[in-house]
Amino acid sequence: MQLGYVLLNSPSWEKIRVTGQQVSISSTSATAHARSGFAARFKRNLIFRRSIYGIVFIAPAMLFFLIFSLYPMVNGFYMSLTEYTLLKPPVWIGFDNYIDLLENKEFLNGLKVTLVFVLGTTIPKWILSLLLALLFVRDFRGRETFKVLYFTPTLLSGVVVSLVWKLIFHANGLATALVGPYTGQPEIFWLASSTLTPLALITVDNWAGIPFFMIVWIAGLVGIPREFYEAALIDGAGRWAAFRHVTLPLLRPTTLFVVVVSTIGALQAFSLQFIMTKGGPSNVTTTVALLVYKYGFEYFKMGVAAAMSVIMFLAIIAITLIQIRSVQSEDTSYT
Amino acid sequence: MYQKRHTSSYYLSHAVQTLLLYAVIIVGLLLFCVPVYYMVTTSFKAEAEVVAIPIHWLPHEFKPENYPEAFATAPFALYFYNSLVVALAVVASTLFFSGLAGYGFAKFQFPGKNLAFLLVLSTMMIPFQILLIPLYVLVHGLGWTNNFAGLIIPGALSAFGVFLMRQFCLTLPDELLDAARIDGAGEIGIFARIVLPLLKPPLASLAIITFLASWNNFLWPLIVVNKGNLFTLPVGMTVFTQPMRSPYWTYIMAVSTVATLPVVLVFLALQKYFIQGVVLSGMKG
Questions:
Q1: pLDDT tens-digit profile of A146-165?
Q2: Residue ranges in chain B whose pLDDT is less than 50
Q3: Which of A28, A137, B142, B213 is least buried, going by the fewest C-beta atoms within 10 A?
Q4: Which whole-number Å values give the CA distances from B129 to A306, A307, B152, B219, in the listed order?
């Protein structure tokens, strides 16, 4: 604001003001020819001046994106083809990092763990959040209050969510206290079991994510005009038919958003694994995102870490493109 | 008579439906709210109560002194302050430069505009995953590790912010801007005095999501800072997860509660913009 104020009172502003006055003078002049000549020149001048301002306005942002997004991305591809430890300049080794990763048991296990986590935190999230949203578009007393309360998990940061659930899944914590009476076990090691632990993390991520996607679905559902349903009813459609042939097709943009955003988020999940389990027990929750951190900042193998993140990046792009295509291709099957 | 029976059975099924609806809604409510309730109540318990079975739904021994004690175990007040400084700086810079660039894209013609906008759009698609390592190397090279610059500058602008502001600026009437020009206002004056005030609603949403993203950011501060005096709150809280240190759960929950408070306050004050903003951005946590 202060910068704007200074520039506002600078001489260049006065100059524009003067040219502005010239317009009013020229418009009162008698000959149409002279007027159009001046106006054209003035207009050219004005367009040039305005295009300069456009460039000045976007320049800081573009500079920022070049330095902090585009350059690092290109550099990431380059680094994945080098051996680099931060201490010495990177050494070109071609595709060796990628070839090594194909035989790296930790990485292959990481891919498997990530796949399970992504499946477990996307499909249930889509279905459950949509079902809840369908309840919340009905009219009932106290709806708005319930909606706000449902939103609570969204207010917690990833770190807080991880810490709270670490306590809930403590061997003698809330989860055990609730389940204990039925299983008869005084303590359950939720976070130290190769079968329970991945499920526990999946549960937590669903808990934290469902309310958010519920709100997104509600926004989409509210946007569907009532007339469409009335038309479907007149045509004799039942509830399910109306949902399948009216709601779902019209929700397609929302569906795409939910599917893509949840998948990208699941592929990049980090704090949950880092805080709740540190990837354990015996690597059953070591996702690729965690491995990128480990190789980069514990082993300082920047080249290997960069190669892993390039693979993740390509996976994200491929999955996103497939999802866009499959959500859009439903388009033709419905209509 | 037939009519009447039909109506009463209709009412009955309606009542059953409503009952079912509330049953489902309340079960969901418990699932989503009990963990948060558990966090807050645990923060007031005595440590021995934490793993008591049967579970103490209310602290038997009410201990508000957990809060000052928790804040004495590590410099959490400093971490809180660091988080706040970083978040406010990031919000201010994001709002100003996003507004500026969004206005530039929406209302001016210049060579290379489409190419530049394509760059913004593709930046929006880049997952942070791939930037993590090279961005760290860049910041390390600039000497910004263990420095506020390293915490703030790489996040000081978002492509999403520029995109959002452009979409809103497109809806501003050209006549309004031209009228200001005819009245002799300069381009910068038009931006500061006319465009920015009109952008208040989308700026409010952008401010909230930017604040939230920065306040909750964990991975980037974790790698860019390793000196305790620059930790942000999420990074500082990981002292509780270090091995060889038995966690003191009541303190952990006290700090977690305090870390959530600013977000709750923003939520209560700006609920409409908050939900709108979070939904707009598609970011969470």
A1: 998 998 999 999 999 999 99
A2: 1-4, 283-285
A3: A28
A4: 9, 11, 18, 10
Could you list the residue range(s) of the whole structural domain that residue B33 is in? 2-65
B195: left (phi over 0), alpha (psi -120 to 50) or beta: alpha
| β-sheet bridge partners, residue A83 | A91
Q: Are residues B167 and B253 in the same domain?
A: yes
Q: Tell me the pLDDT of chain A averaged across its residues.
A: 83
Task: Count CB-CB contacts under 10 A for residue B163.
Answer: 18
Q: Which of A57, A167, A313 sits opposite B249 (nearest CB)?
A: A167
Residue A253 DSSP SS3: helix
Look at A156 and B131 and tell me if their CB atoms are within 8 Å.
no
| Tens-digit pLDDT profile for residues B99-146 | 999 999 999 999 999 999 999 988 888 888 889 999 999 999 999 999
Tally of domains within chain B: 2
Say whether both B20 and B89 belong to one domain.
no
DSSP label at A81?
T
> Residue A248: is its pLDDT beyond 80?
yes
Mutate to test the interface with B, among A51, A147, A160, A271 (most CBs of B within 10 A): A160
SS3 A189: coil
What is residue A213's three-state secondary structure? helix
> Do B136 and B46 lie in a common domain?
no
B153 touches chain A (CB under 8 A): yes
**Residue A143: closest CA among chain B residues belongs to which residue?**
B25
In this structure, the answer to whether residues B165 and B276 fall within a common structural domain is yes
Q: How close B12 comes to chain A (CA, Å)?
A: 17
In the block, which residue shows the tokens 């860019």? B224
Q: How far away is chain A from the Cα of B100, in angstroms, using its nearest Cα?
A: 5
Cβ–Cβ contact A125 with B under 8 A: no
User: Domain ranges in chain A?
Assistant: 2-79, 96-334
DSSP conformational letter for A91: E
> Between A and B, how many CB-CB pairs are < 8 A?
293
Distance CA B240, CA B249 (A): 9
Q: Which residues are registered as beta bridge partners of A92? A: A82
ipTM above 0.90, yes or no: no
Q: What is the DSSP letter of A83?
A: E
| pLDDT over 70 percentage in chain B | 91
- B132/A292 touch (CB, cutoff 8 Å), yes or no: yes
- Distance (Å, rounded) from C-alpha A179 to C-alpha A90? 53
Residue B35 sits at the chain A interface (C-beta within 8 Å)? yes
d(CA A176, CA A183) in angstroms, rounded, equals 9
Give the integer Cα–Cα distance in Å for A256 and A99: 34
Type of residue numbered B214: S
Closest CA to A210 of A291, A330, A120: A120
Residue B113: both structure tokens together: 């505009």
DSSP A92: E
Q: What is the CA radius of gyration of chain B?
A: 25
Homologous superfamily assigned to A96-334:
MetI-like (1.10.3720.10)
